Amino acid sequence: MPTRISSKAVKHSRADSYDELPIKGRSRKVSQQEDEDEDSEEDRRDQTPNKRLRVDKMFHRVNEVRVKSESSSFQINQDSDEEVEKQEEVEKEEEEEEEKENGLPGLEMLETEDGLHLVKDDDDEESDDGLDGAPEHEEMGLEDIEQGNPKKQKHASGAIVRVKMRNFVTYTNVEFRPGPSLNMVIGPNGTGKSTLVCAICLGLGWSPIHLGRAKDIGAYVKHGCKEASIEIEVQGKPTDEVNPVIKRTITESNKSFFFINGKPATYKSVQQLMKSFSIQIDNLCQFLPQDRVAEFAALDPVNLLRETQRAAAKPEVLEWHEALQKIGKEQKALKAQHEADASTLANLESRQRALEPDVARLRERRDVLREIEMHKRAKPFARYRVSRAVAHTAKARHRELEREFENLRRAQEPTLKKANQKKAYRDKVAGAYREKKRQVELKEKQLMEYKRKYLDESETKIKDKRAELSTATKKERERKNDEVKLRNQIAKMKEDYQNQPEEVDVQGYNQRMRDKSQEIATLKEKAENIRAEVDPKVAKGRAKKAEIQNIIGELENLQSASGQRENLLSNLSKDTYRAYTWIKENADKFEKPVFGPPLIECRVKDQRYVEIVEGIVRSNALAITCQSQKDYQLLMNEFFGSKKAGIKGMGLAEVTIMNYSGTSIPTLERQRSPMSIQELRQRHRMDGWALDFLEGPEPVLNMLCHESRIHSTPVTLRSLSPQENNAFENIFQSWVTDRDHYTVRWRKEYGDDAKSVNARNILRAGIFNTQQVDQAAKQNLEDKMQALKFECSEIEEYVNGAKARYDAIQKQISELNREKVEINKEKDKKLDAQRRWVALGTRIELRSRIEQEEGKLAQKMNGNYKQEAEILGKQLSALCIERAKGALQFATMVNSYINLQNDLLKLQLWDIEANSDVTHLESKNAEVNDLLKRKEVEVAQAKGQMNRAKQEALDDGEVVKKLLEEDDLTSEDREYLRALNERALSLEDLDLEIDVIQGRLSLLHEGNPNAIRDYERRAKEIEVLQKTIQEKQVKMDHLETAIEEVKAKWEPALNEVVEKISAAFSESFEKIGCAGEVKVSKTEDFDKWEIQILVKFRESEKLQILTNQRQSGGERAVSTVFYLMALQSMAQAPFRVVDEINQGMDPRNERLVHHRMVNIACQEHTSQYFLITPKLLANLTYHPRMKVHTINSGDYVEEDYKIDVMKCIAKMKALRRA
Fold first, then answer.
1. Does residue 1059 lie within any of the structural domains?
2. Which residues face 848 on adjacent strands?
3. What family, per the record (predicted)?
């Protein structure tokens, strides 16, 4: 049942580069190659203001799509059957009336390459083109559609019922409701068809990697939005109460959130739900997006077999194959290991047999060596027996000597008794001597203390008293000096009394001082006048200097901006920065000035246009400009080198050098804009040419005119309407608005007048947002600074002259002040003399004062310090007497000390006598003592020998104990050692037996010393290897059984699937007069089983394997489509998606493939199918079960433009009936 389509224009994003989906902050990319290869003439006519409509016969069953330009959203509704029938009747009556009025009976609507035309129905055959090579009963036209709607078909479980997108790629808000069978999504390039494919993939929980486009999920959020959402409703299972609705929210920061039926869900739960419906987005046989068509065509046969099983066979078939691959790999690895182990075992056994004679001989030698070792180890036992016996002997001797010593001591005891008594007396005298010596030392200490306390302190007091006497004598001398001074003072007073000073002329002195003050005031007035003249000049000079400092700051600021630009240049291109640095350092080598990149030399006048201007000149922002061919060649040689000239150069690879000196427009003044600036602003409402907003050196601007056409590219800060953009296509080659940069490209391959308009977004400024140095401003500042410096020098010269005059005046003032001070001093001196005379009073008073001073003098003469000196002398004498008394007492104490010393001498003599007696007695008993001492020494020596023998026996016993505890001793070794110990062999006997055994050893050849170790190690390896081989053989038998069991189930099932695919594939090829076959290539290795597709497109050919080398691109495309169609009837997946599979086909193959696709995809009980295509041929096959989704959006669709498909179909029917 037909429905109608109404559409409003949808502004979609344009691209700046190729083959990319929109990412955050940018618009979707449109490939230039797509523009050239895929844009049909009909698509271009759809974008023109006339809005010519192309209507095909497939518009039988479509969606009503309403697109709001304000929200860029689609709302898809399905009209009820009754409403459509009523609408048809109304439109039929309107069309009949219209036909009568227009007089168009018997006309047919026919679509040609030039558009939609009405022609006379003179030839029925021309108006009904059949499908070449297809049976007539399979073709459906408008007559078939008139028969009515087929029964409404339900969606299969897992099929997509609804897709809703919000802020996703190009869409703001859109909802699709696909049909249960074939869904054709058509529309011009760039309208958002593939966006639906992206939404299905991402919305059902798969990664962007399966789309072959942007890798980051956040790149699919619409430009300018923070998040996007995809909501997909799939048909539930019969047991489900409601259809599952999967929603995925995507943020621009690459985060995702899942919801199932409105509840938060995990990625794993979404994947489990998809698995329950057998949805395989990662299978190219089910989901083939536009950017992965080439990847599917490039699938190797092995992977094609795997994908085919996933798409067409039951799940267990692929599981069986994977199990066989896994078991086969394990079996192959085990077999290789088994063979390697068997070879290793044979080698080991052979080497083991060759070693057996040597091993027997070496074992005998080892036993002899062990016997020698045991004899050597038995030596500690023999040593222990000897040392133990020695210890017992030493102990017995020590006891015997002790008894002898004790008996001798008792026998000599009476003889030694007298000597002992004398020794006791000697000891008593020695004690008394020590006590007396202590008393002498104590008395000596008391003497020293008394001397310090009494004699030394008395001496100190005597010294102090003598010092006081000296002071009194000194005061007497001072008194005599004072007496002399008083006599002189009295004499001076008497002289003043006799001489009266003369009168002082105070007025005369004051007048002289006033005259000096007047001269000083006059000079100060002159100085102030000079200062008054100089101060404004000084203030002006300071102001000028402040201005100079401000200018220096401004120049530093300008230079800082230049540094920022140079730093930016270094970051963008190290080579260009090196080249620019070299140019600055070698400016004297050029014929004419050479200019750095526009990034350095140019500046945007108005910062509002910085992004627009930068977008125009960005590609040439790093170019270096020179003005002569000679300079150009110099730079080429220096930067890139010259093999011909033998110049190595700097090896710079990223440097661009521009030279227009030899062109027809070598200077900026010759550049001509298409129209005047007044006409551009008034007629076209543009702000100006790009050149008007950029300033810099003329050669650089001329280069940008040549390369970026800044003199002929109009710019504006406002948005343009579609009508203005359409009009500009025929006037300008490029223009820039507030957001977009439009460029007109002529498409000669489509005709002389064919052209396309490419629009790309204006990017954020990154080069000219840092302002460059304004050279004119810099020069003005430098000129101003020079003028200020000149003025400052004039002011300084004037101030210096005035200062010299001022200093001369100050010098005169100083001289006058000095003279004034001298006059004042002279006056004060005379006044002082007069004041002193006045101070003396009258002559009577002066005489009285003289008498008073004479009285003081008499007192001084009478007063002296003789009496005080006498008193001090007496005190000194008393101290001397006291010290003499102390000396006498000290002498008494010394006598007592001497007596003690005498007693000490007596005791010392007695001690000497006692020692002499003891010595005498000892000499008489010397023989007895010597005998006792010798016996005592013998006892001590015997004791030492006993201890040493005992320790040696203990050490030997410890050695024996450790020997028996060693880990390397076997039970046989310990038994052997016990047997040797029981024989009680001496060390000599052991050495003798060792010599005998070594004689036997010399008769045995040594051979390979490692033979036994290797033999035993190899024996263990053989034992382990034999066990391993047995275990692997058992495991291999189990694997072989498992392979046979799985293969018995998998191979028949695979053969059945491939046979069905081959039958359907062959049938499709037969329909177009060709041949095709699908078979499985089998090998022993299950990893190498593969699908082979054989095709034949010509009668003279044989069936050949489909490869990239044998068949053309169109033939491979046809084969790919037929192979996918062959999977349709066997599909395990609930839906399939194929995006632009018909690209590269010629019209005949495309028509044949489309016909076959419709017939297969629209059969009952087949899975849902999505076919995405930007172009269609006229008069294609249509089926009632298919559903057509037309997306009509773009930059040139008018905002209020609507397509009434129902009315178009009704007119087509009327024309048919007529």
1. no
2. none
3. Belongs to the SMC family. SMC5 subfamily.
Poorest-pLDDT segment among 411-415, 673-677, 996-1000: 411-415
Q: Nearest-CA neighbor of 315 among 279, 357, 346? A: 279
pLDDT value at position 701? 93
Count of CB atoms situated within 10 Å of the CB of 109:
18
Count of residues in the chain = 1218
Banded pLDDT at 141 (limits 50, 70, 90):
very low
Cα–Cα distance, 588 to 582 (Å, whole number): 11
How many whole angstroms separate alpha carbon 1028 and alpha carbon 136? 71
Cα–Cα dist 225/252, whole Å: 8
Q: Which residue has the higher pLDDT, 1046 or 890?
A: 1046
CB-CB contact of 193 with 187 (8 Å):
yes
990 inside domain: no
- The pLDDT score that the predictor gives to residue 112 is 31
Out of 702, 729, 761, pick the residue that ends a domain.
761
Of 924 and 1099, more confident: 1099
Q: How far apart are CA 970 and CA 777, in angstroms?
A: 106
Residues ≥6 apart with Cβ < 8 Å to 1177 = 1147, 1150, 1151, 1154
- DSSP-based three-state secondary structure for 1007: coil
Look at residues 697, 730, 761 and tell me which one is the last residue of a structural domain.
761
- Give which of 981, 975, 970, 948 is closest to 379, Cα–Cα: 981
What is the C-alpha end-to-end distance of the chain, expressed in Å? 21
Whether 330 and 1085 have beta carbons less than 8 Å apart is answered as: no
595 CB contacts (<8 Å, ≥6 apart)? 601, 624, 625, 626, 697, 699, 700
Q: Answer for the pair 244, 237: CB distance below 8 angstroms, yes or no.
A: no
- What type of residue is 308? T
| Cβ contact 341:1032 at 8 Å | yes
SS3 breakdown of the chain: % helix, strand, coil, rounded to 5? 60, 10, 30
Q: Are 1136 and 282 in contact (CB under 8 A)?
A: no
Q: What is the pLDDT of residues 199-217, one digit of tens each?
A: 999 999 888 887 777 788 8
Domain that holds residue 1178: 159-283+1133-1215
Read off the amino acid at residue 309: Q
Average pLDDT rounded to a whole number, residues 1015-1023: 80
Pairing verdict, β 1135-1139 and 1168-1173: parallel
Q: What angle do CA 840, 842, 844 make, to 5 degrees?
A: 110
User: In whole angstroms, what is the distance from residue 1074 CA to residue 1102 CA?
Assistant: 11
Closest CA to 63 of 9, 10, 5: 5
Instruction: Decide if 890 is inside a domain.
Output: no
Selection from 619, 769, 743, 739 nearest residue 25 by Cα: 739
Question: Rounded CA gap, 740 and 736, in Å?
Answer: 6
- How many Cβ atoms sit within 10 Å of the Cβ of residue 705? 23
Q: Please count the CA atoms within 13 angstroms of the CA of 912 that sit on its side-chain side.
A: 6
d(CA 1076, CA 957) in angstroms, rounded, equals: 100
Question: Does residue 946 form part of some domain?
Answer: no
- Euclidean distance between CA atoms 1184 and 1181, whole angstroms: 10
Strand blocks (E) in 84-169: 107-112, 115-120, 160-168
pLDDT in tens, 853-895: 666 666 655 555 666 677 777 777 887 887 777 777 778 888 8
> What strands, in cross-sheet order, belong to the sheet with 714-715?
688-689, 714-715, 734-736, 740-746, 755-761
Q: And the tokens for 1041?
A: 């059984």
C-alpha–C-alpha distance, residues 501 and 831, integer Å: 10
Q: What pLDDT shows up at residue 17?
A: 32
Distance CA 601, CA 695 (A): 9
The answer to whether the beta carbons of residues 5 and 1209 sit under 8 Å apart is no
Say how many domains are in the chain.
2
Residue indicated by tokens 């011009």:
188
Question: Residue 1054 corresponds to which tokens in the numbers above?
Answer: 């695979």
1172: CATH: 3.40.50.300
Q: Measuring CA to CA, which residue among 656, 668, 657, 622 is closest to residue 768?
A: 622
